[in-house]
Amino acid sequence: MIPLPLIPLIFYTSNKGIMKELVNKKITTIFAVIFGIVILGFNGYLLYQVIFQGVGF
C-alpha cells in the first residue's frame, strides 16, 4: 500500500505553489522519484509473481 500514497506525496512536496518555502529541493525530488520507481517496480514484480505463478509455500 506504500506506492499508492507515495506518488501524490512526491508531487505535492515538490510543488512550490502548495508547499511555499517548505518545497523539496530538486535533488530530493529526483531521489524520491527514483526510489518511488524502484518501489513501484518491486511491487509490480511481486504482483506478477502472485498472480501468474501463484503463491509457493
Notes on the structure:
The protein is an all-alpha fold and 57 residues long. Helices cover 75% and strands 0% of the residues. It has three helices and no strands.
Distance between the termini: 23 Å
Mean pLDDT: 89
Helix content: over 70%
Shape: elongated
Q: Structural class of the secondary structure composition?
A: mainly alpha
Q: What's the multimeric state?
A: single chain
- Helix-strand string: HHH
Name the poorly predicted regions.
none
Number of domains: 1
Tally of helical runs: 3
Number of strands: 0
Tell me the strand percentage band.
Answer: under 5%
Could you give a short account of the major beta sheet? none
Global Rg: 15 Å
